[in-house]
Amino acid sequence: MNFRYNKFKPSEYVMVIKKGRPVRKGKGLSVFYNNLITNLVVIPATAFDGAFAFEDLITADFQEVCVQGGITYRIFDFDKASLMADFTYNPRKKDNSILAMAVINKRINNIIKAIVIREVGVRDVRTIIKQADEMAQIITDMLKDDEIIAGLGVEIITVNVLGIMAKPETRKALEAAAREQILKEQDDAIYMRRNAAIEQERLIKENELNTEIKVAEKEQEKQDKEQEMMLSLQRSQLAREEEKQDREQEMELKLQRGQLEREQEKQSKKQQILREEMEARLERQMIEAEKKGQLEKQEMEYRIELEEKNKDFLAIELENEKLKNDEKARAMAAMIKAYENMNVALVEACALANMDPNAIMAKGFMQLGQNADKIGTLNIGTDILDQLVGKLEK
Predict the structure, then answer these.
(1) Contact by Cβ (8 Å): 210, 202
(2) What is the pLDDT, as a whole number, of residue 318?
(3) Tens-place pLDDT, residues 34-57
(4) What is the rounded distance in angstroms from the CA atom of residue 369 to the CA atom of residue 145?
(5) By CB neighbour count within 10 A (0-12 exposed, 13-18 middle, 19+ buried), where does 282 fall?
(6) Which residues are paired to 31 by β-bridges?
(7) Burial 92-120, CB ≥16 within 10 A → b, else e
(8) Residues contacting 348, CB < 8 A, separation 6+
(9) Is the sign of the CA dihedral 41, 46, 47, 49 positive or negative?
């Protein structure tokens, strides 16, 4: 018999084709068909994992590298996939779909290899072996936008680059260079650590010097303040001393003025006493002169009475007496005028000229006693002391 029945899995997409046209499509169909006039196309509806490994890839610096990775994809357009690979169902050959998927996987790997060759060729070996993730992202983005992939009816789920490896000789050279770089970094770290230690020591010494400088500045400020305080105290002390000296000088000047005033008062009193004495003496002389004039007048009258008979003689004598009296009056007036303009000190000197020497000496010692505060050193001879002692004993 040529009639058959098949029940397919839900992970299988089934297309029933009669006379070259699909009459039924779907996942997990149950189909009763005549194998003489009917063909079945069974396409896997699950995701597939593929692997790739590309050797002898040349970098920009002419080094060989090997890129290994994996890809996950699925068929989303079953019509396009059925046109690109043979997914015909054959009960005798159940691995037919596996062979078709291997064809699609090879085509995808070829596209990936072209992308990888182009990307590796523009990078040097040091850069490319560090860019596995960047390479996977580039492959994913370019496959999603590739028209051939879209024509296969395939959807790229993910691309992983598992490793980018150089040749053993290149790896050894890179390892040596990296080792040298690591050792250099180690030396740099040691050098930087030493420099940091030296810098820290320099900072510590600088801080110590700054501290010493600040302490010295503080000490200098303290000394300056102390000197300023000493200067202010000295200035205030000098000001007080100057004020005290000014007060003392003022008091001394006041005392000197008082002494001068007292001396002037004494001198004025002495002059007043001398003037009064002179006035009294002049008054007594004038009284005596008046008395004398009255006596002379009485005598003249008496003589006139006695010599009335000799009128001519008496007239002449009277005339002479008048002339004498006029002369005396003029002399008296001149004497009074002279006394009025006379210097008191000169009069006193004249009076002293007629005084007793003992009185003059006593007056001198009285003046010495009055001016004792102005006398620095007083020397008295022994002959004067003998005379004084002799006067006291008498």
Answers:
(1) no
(2) 72
(3) 777 888 888 888 888 999 999 888
(4) 142
(5) middle
(6) 6
(7) eeeebbeebbeebbebbbebbeebbeebb
(8) 270, 274
(9) negative
| Least confident among 122-131, 139-148, 176-185, 230-239 | 176-185
Whole-number Å distance between alpha carbons of 41 and 29: 12
pLDDT for 72 equals: 92
With beta carbons less than 8 A apart as the criterion, state whether 50 and 69 touch: no
Is-contact 282 339, C-beta < 8 A?
yes
Nearest 5°: phi and psi at 356? Answer: -70, 140
d(CA 90, CA 11): 17
Lowest mean pLDDT among 2-16, 38-52, 103-117, 214-228: 2-16
Question: With contact defined as beta carbons under 8 Å apart, do 185 and 88 qualify?
Answer: no
CA distance 354 to 367: 19
- Tokens at 85, concatenated: 């690979």
Region of 160 please: left (phi>0), alpha (psi -120 to 50) or beta: beta
Distance of CA 278 to the CA centre of its chain: 91
Distance CA 18, CA 5 (A): 16
CA dihedral of 251, 256, 259, 260, whole degrees rounded to 10: -140
SS3 letters across the chain: CCEEEEECCCCEEEEEEECCEEEEEEECCEEEEECCCEEEEEEECCCEEEEEEEEEEECCCCCEEEEEEEEEEEECCHHHHHHHCCCECECCECCHHHHHHHHHHHHHHHHHHHHHHHHHCCCCHHHHCCCHHHHHHHHHHHHHCCHHHHHCCEEEEEEEEEEEEECHHHHHHHHHHHHHHHHHHHHHHHHHHHHHHHHHHHHHHHHHHHHHHHHHHHHHHHHHHHHHHHHHHHHHHHHHHHHHHHHHHHHHHHHHHHHHHHHHHHHHHHHHHHHHHHHHHHHHHHHHHHHHHHHHHHHHHHHHHHCCCCHHHHHHHHHHHHHHHHHHHHHHHHHHHHHHCCCHHHHHHHHHHCCCHHHHHHHHHHHHHHCHHHCCCCCCCHHHHHHHHHHHHC
